[in-house]
Amino acid sequence: MPDIFGYARAVNELLLDPFRHDAWATRELLAVCRPLTDEQLEATTTGTYGGIRATFHHLIESEAYYLGLLGGTSPGWYREDPELPSPIEELERRAADMAERWEAFLASGPVDPAKPVVHTDFESDAGVLIAQVLNHGNEHRAQIFTVLATLGVEHPELDGWAYGEATGRYRST
Predict the structure, then answer these.
(1) d(C-alpha 29, C-alpha 144), whole Å
(2) Are the C-beta atoms of residues 137 and 59 closer than 8 Å to each other?
(3) Other CB atoms within 10 A of residue 154 CB
(4) For a surface tag, which of 6, 57, 66, 162 has the fewest beta carbons within 10 Å of its beta carbon?
(5) Distances (CA, A) of 12 to 9, 36, 41, 163
(6) Among the listed residues 148, 123, 119, the one whose alpha carbon sits nearest the alpha carbon of residue 56
(7) Residue 1 has what pLDDT?
(8) Measured between alpha carbons, how far is 59 from 117 in angstroms, rounded to an integer?
(9) Quick one: how far is CA 81 from the chain centroid?
């Protein structure tokens, strides 16, 4: 009989880097946005979710929602005031909280990618929902990049290679 639980643990461990990258990228981008004025944080452009602060708020709130759907623990701040984007410092705190919650969720036991996730609006396999979590973060960070570009603010490289360099696990030769 195959070692299903050993395999599942290995899959969870493999997911750590994508989730750590996701958290790192959000943290790095929030740091770039910290010195922006309120006017800059409210700036938007065509094809984006909305202003920078509102987009971060949506991204982090959505992570809390997705984690709850997967069976993890949603934070107490989730849905406190979903319509009001928080100050950058609060968004940084919430992003750090979500990073810890994803780590705990992945360490809590095997995630079955075929586990059904049923909600009032949809049904999905857990693996598809995890793909959505990671894609959602990338999409909205890219939208923030677009707004920053219209403001003339340079954004950091946040791809997998930059994450690898930042963590000392990738070196160009």
Answers:
(1) 9
(2) yes
(3) 9
(4) 6
(5) 5, 37, 35, 19
(6) 148
(7) 41
(8) 20
(9) 19
| Helix ranges restricted to H, 80-125 | 88-107
Q: Give residues with Cβ within 8 angstroms of 84, minimum separation 6.
A: 57
pLDDT along the chain (173 residues), means of 10: 53 87 98 96 96 95 95 83 75 96 90 90 95 97 98 95 95 88
Give the pair of three-digit tokens for residue 64.
């809390």
Pairing of β 123-125 and β 116-118: antiparallel
Residues 7-24 as b or e (16 or more Cβ within 10 Å = b): eebeebeebeebbbbbbb
What is the DSSP code (8-state) at residue 123? E
